[in-house]
Amino acid sequence: DQPGFRRFAVGAGLRDSTRIAAGEENLWVGIMLANARHTAAGLLAVERRAAELRAAIEANDIPTLRRLLAEARIARQNLDRSE
């Protein structure tokens, strides 16, 4: 592992997307369990979308990949608009 390579390879997005992992465990356990139904539903939605994406990649399904990526782009743009 070369110094700085991991940071270069993953970029700032990893830091942003792993913010919860940087927090104190007991705080996040409480938050997740207090919102268990919504947390579980959100995770299930992510799992399903990831499975759909993986299947499209494995099948070389270009139309589905384009659709999924377009949907992700639109969802991300909507996040920017809601700020």
What would you say this structure looks like, in words?
The chain has 83 residues and is mainly α. It has two domains: 1-34, no CATH class; 48-83. Helices cover 84% and strands 0% of the residues. The chain is built from five helices and no strands. The longest helix is centred in the middle third of the chain and has 23 residues, at 36-58. The chain is extended. 0% of the residues are buried.
Q: Please, what is the average pLDDT?
A: 88
* Low-pLDDT runs: none
- Largest beta-sheet characterization: none
The helical percent reads over 70%
The beta-strand count equals 0
Radius of gyration: 17 Å
Cα(first) to Cα(last) distance is: 38 Å
Question: Summed up, what is this model?
Answer:
The chain is mainly α. Helices cover 84% and strands 0% of the residues.
